[in-house]
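Example complex used in Figure S2.
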Amino acid sequence: MDVQRKLAILADAAKYDASCASSGTEKRDSRDGKGLGSTAPGMGICHSYAPDGRCISLLKVLLTNACAYDCLYCVNRASSNVPRARFTVDEVVQLTLDFYRRNYIEGLFLSSGIIRSADYTMEQIVEVARRLREEHHFRGYIHLKTIPEADDALIAKAGRYADRLSINIEVPEETSLAQLAPEKNVRAIRRTMGRLRLKLDEATEAKKAPTRTKPPRFAPAGQSTQMIVGADAATDQTILDTSANLYGSYNLKRVYYSAFSPIPDSSRALPLQAPPLVREHRLYQADWLMRFYGFEAGEIIDPAAGMLSLEIDPKLAWALRHRERFPLDVNRASREELLRIPGFGRKAVDRIIDTRRNSAIRSSDLAKLHIPRNKALPFIVLPDHRPPAYQLDGARLAERFRPKAQQLGFGF
Amino acid sequence: MHRIRLDSDTDFDGWRKAARELVLADVAPADITWSVTGDEPELFDAAGLSPDAGAFAETAAPFTHFTQSPSPAQTFNVPARFVELAQLAILHRDPQRFAYLYQLLWRLRANPELMQVATDPDVARLSAMAKAVRRDEHKMHAFVRFREIGREPKSRYVAWFEPEHHIVELAAPFFARRFADMEWSILTPDVCAHWDGHRVAITPGVTKAMAPSEDRLEQTWLTYYASIFNPARLKTKAMQAEMPKKYWRNLPEAALIKPLIEHAERKAHAMVAAEATAPRKPQRQEQPMTRAKPKADTLAHLREEAKDCRACDLWKDATQTVFGEGPQHATVMLVGEQPGDKEDLAGKPFVGPAGQMLDRALAEAGVDRSKTYVTNAVKHFKFVPRGKIRLHQKPNTPEIKACRQWYERELAAVQPLLVVAMGATAAQSVLGKVTPINANRGHLIDRDDGPQVLVTVHPSYLLRLPDAEAKEREYARFVDDLKIVAAHLRKADVA
Ligand code: SF4
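Predicted assembly (907 residues):
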């Protein structure tokens, strides 16, 4: 089979993994002229976008889509009838370098079906990264999928070459995983995450300590995971609780939510209808509220519903349930309070705090701060604006934010 | 009217020099027109800045050249933020940018705080321009597509790009850092950047015909682009927001967008409509959560069995069961409260800060830890997540009771002569009832139904003590308690 045919199969097999970004690593470049590539600590670069709206920043492929496991939600499961292929280590290395030189990509995201054993599979994955780094002096971004229960030495090696390691939690609850992926074990996945965290902590500690020897390098962009949404009956509350636990326990950089997607040749045990993509979007918004806006996992969702509203964003929904905290005076409120106002982003809050020292914020300034007026005005007080009391108390307020009666254009 | 002509579209130094002298000479913004060498000056009158700027243009003075550098007395300070903003905004393609910048500079003299005011119209306008420049630079980093001329290792890489603003020189160092070992050129209609392995050279702009039109890898890249796209998730608006159409004509993969979208709906429908396939081989049976009890409890058996314990809810949020560790027939069994953060991650008891405290105290008391069996009353870490940390929670009585089976079976397997219960939770589990520590510590408690017991504090109690003096005193007491263990062991050895 030629490389192009393999690429078609093995990229197709990898497209369901959402945990693909190229940000947050250390700074490197190839200015010394010996190697190829660079990374910057800030944002990764999306080199293209696919019509599914997703960023293409890495060559995202599987080493092989043959897999011994039979996870029902997965297109590569042992019982699936998809065509199979397997890259050689060299083929992936060459493809990465060739794509990189043309500026198509930032680096490589390599995953694999589990073949022979966890150790054998992990060894192959690590070997690709080793060759890129040691033989080709590649300094671009490398993200490797960690195989649960692979040998500790292999994991340490993976962390030496990779920028990021990830291991997918798959579904939020152990019971679902037992049904959907009988060979997978949440405990093993969590144990591996725990091992990664210890190694990440060690590397951070070593960096802080004043020694002359270089600290052991271990995945400077940290670890991440993916959770599939909608393949089981878990509520959004369960999902957020799991995320909060994962962030706290394993210091993950990101939890990715991937709406279960219909796959060719799907199993009878699964819903054929995908969950609405907007559910995934709302989960990302809720996740942001936890990580950057000071919200706790337990306060984002209406306890009576257990699910995020599909119609309005989680912060607005929270504000509507907590009207007693509003209106807030934009020129006086604390940073924490400002962050809870619907429509107020982090950057806008920073600018407000800078600006109001010198000049009061007025309603005509909202546009300059990129704050949507309609969303924010009912909740704020400005020198030239105060929402009428009946508005904030009234039942019509929530109505005003609901999308006009129309079919949502999501799903199909 | 002052007419200032700058050397190039990106001549920040020229602008700065001129602007400084104009401000010092008290020349109002409306009295200046800015232009760039080679451009038509009429295009750049200060129209719109001031209602009567046009009138002055008629009687404009010849172009002013500022060649003499100002004396130190003729300088003044501007906020660093302004300089950063100006260096970016000057790269914007808007012909009025020099005038806008001058106007802000002019106002900054009277109000040095102005840069702080994000809502000021001049600050907002220039910030938006700087942002557009940054975005265009970022898009250039992303969307430049090199095409190979010749074959490695002798190949050259050449790209054609059409930037929206004057960003080629701004963006070039990124490519030099990234592709240091290859020779490359980025050709644009404005200027071109070339890298020879040592430095970036800038040459005048060229036409698209000068750039290569194909590359041997392009088809492979298109294959990748088509394969990584999931037809069940069409979101074309999101795509266009990030990859605006103006960039499409120089992106080889953009030719695929239309056909991919057209086929997407059909493909997705087909997937859903297709019959689900029956598995090729029988599904494996789910493993039972708790296996049948083996007859003889060896520690190895117990450890395996405890991995799947669900006797209380604590297993749910924790990483793993942290079981006891040590020789199968240790003389002394040390029992703590529950694993902490580190223990939970590592799967071993007493490896975190409390464990280090324990190690130190044991060594000081003369007890060899490797000869003891170390475990916890409760085998799972109980905590609440708070952002990036986990706050330790005390296990409650039902949890202690649920977990006691493991302690009892460990005890039966190890058969120690002495059990040391550290802390109230351990004492409750070991002695089977709530037992205050202070009233009972410092002596061996004889029991008919098992080994002797010694109660003492938990090492993490020592870690939590706020003042150094109390810490030292309590630590010494703890070591004293452990010395009882040492003495006991010596006696047992002699016997
Ligand atoms: S804490 Fe003890 S009883 Fe509760 S699940 Fe864990 S091992 Fe079982």
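The beta strands of chain A are 48-49, 55-56, 58-62, 107-111, 141-145, 164-166, 223-229, 254-259, 328-329, 380-381. The pocket of iron/sulfur cluster is lined by residues B 306, 309-312, 314-315, 321, 378-380, 399, 402-403, 406 (CB under 6 Å).
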